[in-house]
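hiii so my PI (J.) wants the whole complex modelled not just the main chain, which honestly fair. so below is everything: two entries, each one labled with what it is. i double checked the lines twice but i was tired so who knows lol
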Amino acid sequence: MQDSHTTGAHAHPAPHGGGHGGDHAAHAPVATGTFVLVWVALLVLTLVTVAASTWFPGKVGIGVAMVVTPIKAALILMWFMHLKYEAMVFRTMFLSAIGILALVMGLTFFDYSFL
Amino acid sequence: MRSESGTLGATAVSPAAVAHHEHRDDIGSKTGMWLFLFTELLLFGGLFIVYAVYRHKYGTEFHEAAHELNKVMGVTNTFVLLTSSLTMVLSVGALQRARVAESLRWLGATFGLACCFLVIKFFEWSAKHHHGIWPGGEHLHAMPPGEGMFFNLYFMMTGLHGIHVLIGMGVMGSIAARIRSGHVSASRYAALEFTGLYWHLVDLVWIFLLPLFYLTN
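here's the output for the full assembly
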C-alpha cells in the first residue's frame, strides 16, 4: 500500500503532463472581469430582443430574436460553460449533439411544412 | 502514515502528490457531465420541436395567446437567471482561487436568485390560474385549439424548466455543505464546476423560452 503510494507519486507527473493538458493543473481561472463583461453583453442583448419585439412586432421582432438568441446561447456556452477553454473533444461532442438536434428539427419540418 | 512517508524521504510525497493519487478522473467525469447535459438538451429540444410544429400550424392563435403573458415578468426573470449564472461562475472562480468564504457567498447569491425566479414564476402562474388558464382550467378548455395548445406548451415547458431550477437549488445546497466540510475545495472543485454547468444549461433553456412565449406578440 505504502509502496504503491510512492511509486504513484513518482509516476504520476508524466501521464498528467502528457495526456491531460487542459486539466485542473493547467486550468488557470478566468478573470472575473471577463465574466462581468459577458454578463453585461447578455443583458444588453436581452434588451435588444425585447425592444425589437416591442417596437417592431411581427417579422422584424422575430427575426432579431432568431439572430440574437443563439448569440446569447453561444456567450453562455463559450464563457460561462467554459467551452472556449476546453479541449477540442468537448467542443466536438457539443457540436455533434447540436447537429443531431438540428437534423431532427429539420426533418420534422420537412414533414410538417407540406401539410 | 506520516512517519512512514517521512522515512520515504523528502523525494516525493508532498500533499499535492498525495491528493493527485486519489483515484479521480476529472476529464472522464466532465465528459460524463456533458453527456448528461446533451440528454437534457434533447429533452427540451423535443419540446421545442412540438412548439415549432404547432406554431407553424396555429400562427395567429399563438400570437393572440402570447398577449396574455406578462412580458415584464418574463424579462425580469431573464435578468434574474442571467445574473444567477454570473454569480455561479464567480463562485467557481473564488473556489479555484481557494477563497472558500467568497465562493460560499456567491453560491448563496445564486441560490437566492433561483428563489427569486421561482417566486416571480409563482405569481405569474397564480395570475393565470386565477383567470382559469391552467391545464384543465375552464377558460383554457374553452379556448380555440391553437391558443389552448400555446398555454399547454407554456405550462409544460416552463414547468419542466421550473423543476430543473428546483433540482439545481437542491444540488447547490448539498454542494455548499460539501464546500463547508472541505470535501469540495480549491484542489477538488469539479463538483461545484459541474453544478455550474447544470445551472448554465437551465439558464440556456430559459433564454430560448423567453422569445418563444413572451416575445411572440
